[in-house]
Design goal:
Radius of gyration: 18 Å
Shape: globular
Distance between the termini: 55 Å
CATH architecture of the largest domain: Roll
Structural class: alpha+beta
Number of strands: 8
CATH superfamily of the largest domain: Ferrous iron transport protein A (FeoA)
Largest sheet: 6 strands, antiparallel
């Protein structure tokens, strides 16, 4: 049996890794809202359990066992998010916080029933892929909206869900998963990205654009 804290750490490390960011104890402390000393102590414990590889002053990396457990927690989390959104009508900017509570207590039986009820979905309301029942998650090529160039078109694939304000902001601009956008202009010096959504041009702050992922990028002709 693993504690909720262990599951939270592993899930967080996995999410940071998949965004191609370095997993540092300082970054984990900021993300989890705990002290660096607490993170160091937990990471050492996880290393002793063979769930992560960690050396002082180096990045934290999940082991195969750590990845397996992280994906199980992520599967619960993302299934719950979709269930709350589709079956109960909970707004997409509120499902993340609720799923944080459910993910640790969801039984395998209820997980399977929820999966079947939802039609065996492959992504959650924010576009994040749902790990399969056997603990696999296909890699999908994605780029950040902030890294696109003027004249390119792409499909919104995923919006990072930890910040409800970001989801409300993106939703207000019409930026949802599966929406096709065209880059009109990318302002220099970390200025906003102007995107065309349908027939409307929208200015997206660079910080927000860096947390919105796109796929199927093409040159607009």
């Amino acid at each position: 049996m693993h504690t909720q804290a262990i599951e939270d750490y592993l899930k967080t490390v996995y999410e940071i890794q998949t965004r191609q960011d370095e997993v540092t104890t300082t970054g984990l402390a900021e993300r989890l809202g705990v002290t660096p000393a607490s993170v160091t102590g937990m990471v050492k414990k996880l290393a002793e359990m063979n769930l992560v590889v960690y050396e002082r002053y180096r990045n934290v990396v999940l082991t195969e066992a750590g990845v397996k457990l992280a994906l199980e927690v992520l599967r619960h989390h993302r299934l719950v998010e979709l269930y709350l959104a589709q079956a109960l009508g909970v707004p997409w900017d509120q499902v993340h916080a609720e799923a944080e509570k459910w993910e640790h207590v969801l039984s395998e039986d209820l997980e399977d029933r929820m999966d079947a009820l939802l039609g065996y979905p492959t992504s959650d309301p924010h576009g994040s892929p749902i790990p399969s029942r056997d603990g696999t998650l296909p890699w999908v090529a994605q780029d950040r909206l902030s890294d696109m160039a003027a004249g390119q078109t792409a499909t919104i694939s995923e919006i990072i869900d930890e910040d409800p304000a970001l989801l409300r902001y993106a939703g207000g601009l019409g930026l949802y998963p599966q929406v096709r956008v065209t880059i009109i202009e990318t302002a220099p010096f970390d200025g906003p990205v102007t995107v065309r959504v349908g027939d409307t041009d929208r200015m997206v702050g660079r910080a927000a654009a860096s947390r919105i992922y796109v796929s199927d990028i093409r040159e607009d002709r």
